[in-house]
Structure formats: structure tokens, C-alpha cells
Amino acid sequence: MLCKNIESVNGNLHFAGMNTLTLAKKYGTPLYLMDEERIRENCRIYKNALGKLYDNFTVLYASKACSFKRIYEIMKEENMGIDVVSSGEIYTALRAGFPLEKAYFHSNNKTDDDISFAMENSLGHFVVDGFDELDAIERIASKLGKNQKILLRLTPGIDTHTYEAVNTGKVDSKFGTAIETGQAEEIVEYALKFKHIQLCGFHCHIGSNVFDSDTFLRGSEIMLDFMGLMREKFDYTAKELDLGGGYGVRYTDDDEYIDIAENIKKVYEAVKLKIDAMNYPMPQILMEPGRSIVADAGMTLYTAGTVKEITGYKNYLSVDGGMTDNPRYALYKSPYTVFLANKMDKESNYKCSLVGRCCESGDVIQEDITIPKPHRGDIVAVATTGAYNYSMASNYNRIPRPPVVMINSGEDYIAVRRETLEDLTVNDL
Ligand SMILES: *Cc1c(COP(=O)(O)O)cnc(C)c1O
Fold first, then answer.
1. 333 and 211 in one domain?
2. How does pLDDT run across 304-335, given as a tens digit for each residue?
3. Where are the alpha helices (DSSP H) in 9-126?
4. Labelling 106: which of 152, 250, 354, 411 has CA 20 to 30 A away?
């Protein structure tokens, strides 16, 4: 099976050790399931791998991948740091009791309100995206009597050959400041001048869903070269180097597999070699995985509705959710593995497209899948939906968002309740 938390037992799909049919009946559909133990295991892969190699490291969970209170509580318990990208994520983390000094604040456009809100709550580091953000931070920090720690986000100029929309490390990007154009150097010089800003080091995030280990090696080398140059030019030594997130996950059996621990070791060897050659003090190393922490901890359950067979064309299976709970096929044509949870022992010989219930032709969850012949009332499961599904969900067509049910050691509990019809009108005056 795709991941060890997915099993077929007597023709029924089990997830995280529990029968999905029982859960669908208990909570209704559409339904997000999350395997708490898997989330924790995924955190530990990073912590253990880095812990063996570096004296000083921090793993930050990029919480945009899946953000709600319970997730931040788990990250606190796992002793992880977090990335946040908006006042909303900061607020959610605060409400969960997450210590914000362990948060890094990203975003290519932090508003003045965001900046004030973060500083008033003593958020640890800002990851600064451009020149004018530095001006804003200085102005607000000076007003609040703060000294704000920052990293500068740089683009090392690497093309990762992932989808265009998640390829963030190349020069032409809305994120970060490019090394290649010389602007990275200028922003370092600029940042070092401010009284209320403390430059702690540098950040890069090359892209997302990356499988090629050379990409990460190349990224770290470019960053270290740049750090060497900054020492020469400005006598500045970076204390932190954040290598970003982006490790790929397997959405289908055809996807590659990346051994994260092995990859971290390869990157360490390259970093160590270069650091020693440069006679540079080893900085604190940070990593920011999002997808690889939560993706395979998630599964979405739907109830099958209309089955439409268009003679001479193709078949459509409609479910009771869609792009409102999983917009990733519509956005990036993301692959997914689909199961009929109540027909795991039936032969898969029926070709169809899995579509949602929204009034939008692009509302597709997956095209051209092969599953057992579906009927209205079957339970349809989409695997690996833990990342960028719930966090990207919308209320298009006034469809309430599904609940998130967590599973831990054979127990299920609601982490996010189902939105009600009433919830949909609470803001309407
Ligand atoms: C999205 C993002 C991440 C996490 O990326 P994944 O592909 O989910 O691991 C990390 N850092 C930054 C700056 C990001 O924007």
C-alpha cells in the first residue's frame, strides 16, 4: 500500500488502524481523517536525522500545510518550531498555547497590522522578503521598543522542475531577494544598518514536492558561498541558516520515494565540507517541512453520488465534496490515489473521473482513475490529503467545510468540528 497506515481488511479500507466505513458512519462525509501518530513520526524523522549530525538545529513545521489548534498543540508537544504566514496562523498558534518565540514569520507581504500583531505577541523571528519590509519592521519595532530578530529570505536561483506554482527558489519569483542580480548583497548591507533589527542569518526555500536530493545540496552550497561573501564584504557572520522545506511525498504508487534522513545526511556532508574549507563557524541549521509532516497523515472520505456514463466518451463519479475541500487538482493537476473503501476486495476495472459537487467544470479531484464499479452510497477515499487540503478549503457554493477527525492509538476524536449551515451566515449582516 501507498503508506503503512493504509490497509485492506476483509474488503474494508482501514486507515491508521481504524475502519474508515465506521468513521464515515459516525461522523458523516465529507470527512478529513488525520493520523496523529504519523504526524509525530514524521516530525521525529527530521529531529532524529538532524540531531545525529548537528549540535544546533531547529525543525520548523510549515504550518500553512495544515493549520488548526490541535496541530499546534502537537507541534508544541513534539518540541518543534513553526512557520507562520499570516496573523490568522499566528492567532491560531497563540490560542493553542504555542510559544511564539519558536515561530518564524514568513510571507512576501506582511502588512503593518501583521507586523505589529506579531511583535506585540513577541514572535521570535521574521523572515524578511524585501527592502520595504525592513523599513516597516524598523518603524514598528522602534515604536514598540522591540529589537526584532530576522532572517533574510534569498533566492539561490535554482529551477526545481516541479510545478510552476510551487517552484519558488528561482530568480524570477515573488518570494525573496535574488543572489544572482546582486540585490541579495544590497539587502544584507541595508539590513545591517537598522537599530531595532538583528540579522541572525539567511533563509532559502527552493520549491515544494522536490525529490531530487541534488537540488537541496546545490541550494545549501549557494547559500554558504553567499555567506562567505558577506563575511568578506561586511564582516558579517551568519548564526542561522534556514534551508527551507520542500521534500516530496508519494501521492501514488508511481511517485518516487525520497529517504529524508539519508538526504539530510548528504546535505550535512556537503555543508560540513564547505564550512570547514571556509573556516566558517557552523551556523544553527533550520529546516521547514510542511507537506512531508502532514500529507500522508491525512485521508478524505466522501460518499459516492451520481455515476454518469457518457457513451463513447467517459464516466464520471460525483462525490459530496470536491474543490472546496481539495482544490489541488484544479490548481496544479496533483495526482492522488483513490479507493472505494467498501469494495477493497473487488476488481478495479472501471475507468472514470472523480469529480466534486461544485458548479465548475474544473471541479475535479482526479481524472481517469481505475476503481471497482462504483454505486451511489459507496464510500470513496482519497489518500495523502493531509497537506494543503483543509488549509486551502473554501466555502464556494456555500458548502460547509468538513470536520477534521484525529486518530490516535485506536481512538478517534474531533479536532475541528464540521461547519454548519448556520456558520455559513454568521458574517452576513
Ligand atoms: C511552503 C513553505 C514551506 C513548506 O514547504 P513543503 O513543500 O510543504 O515542505 C517551507 N518554507 C517556506 C518558506 C514555504 O513557503
1. no
2. 999 999 999 999 999 999 999 999 999 999 99
3. 20-27, 36-53, 69-77, 87-95, 112-120
4. 250
Rounded to the nearest whole angstrom, what is the distance from the C-alpha of residue 307 to the centroid of ligand 1? Answer: 37
Answer yes or no: are the C-beta atoms of 134 and 190 closer than 8 Å: yes
Write the DSSP assignment of 150-198 as a string of letters.
EEEEEE------S-GGG--SSSS-SSSEESTTSHHHHHHHHHTT-SSEE
- Cα 364 to averaged position of ligand 1 atoms, centre (Å): 25
At 254-299, the pLDDT tens digits run: 998 889 999 999 999 999 999 999 999 999 999 999 999 999 999 9
119-172: pLDDT as tens digits: 999 999 999 999 999 999 999 999 999 999 999 999 998 766 554 555 566 777
Q: What angle do CA 13, 15, 17 make, to 5 degrees?
A: 105
Residue 329 to residue 149: CA distance in whole angstroms: 38
Name, in order, each residue with C-beta under 8 angstroms of 19's C-beta and a sequence gap of 6 or more: 9, 12, 13
72 is a domain residue: yes
Of 417, 391, 392, the closest CA to residue 404 belongs to 417
Q: CATH number for the domain including 310? A: 2.40.37.10
3-state secondary structure of 347: coil
Task: Provide the angle, in degrees to the nearest 10, between the axes of the packed helices 87-95 and 69-77.
Answer: 60
Active site residue 359: yes
Least Cα distance to 84 among 125, 113, 44, 122 occurs for 125
Q: Which numbered atom of ligand 1 lies nearest the CA of 388?
A: 8
Provide the 3-class DSSP secondary structure of residue 378: coil
Among 294, 310, 337, identify where a domain stops. Answer: 294
Q: Identify the CATH number of the domain in which residue 183 sits.
A: 3.20.20.10
> What are the Cα distances from residue 231, in Å, to 3, 235, 239, 278?
45, 4, 12, 10
Residues with CB under 6 A from ligand 1: 62, 64-65, 83, 106, 205, 208-209, 244-247, 288-292
Phi and psi at residue 52, to the nearest 5°:
-75, -20
Residues 334 and 355 in one domain: yes
Is the CB of residue 122 less than 8 Å from the CB of residue 101?
Answer: yes
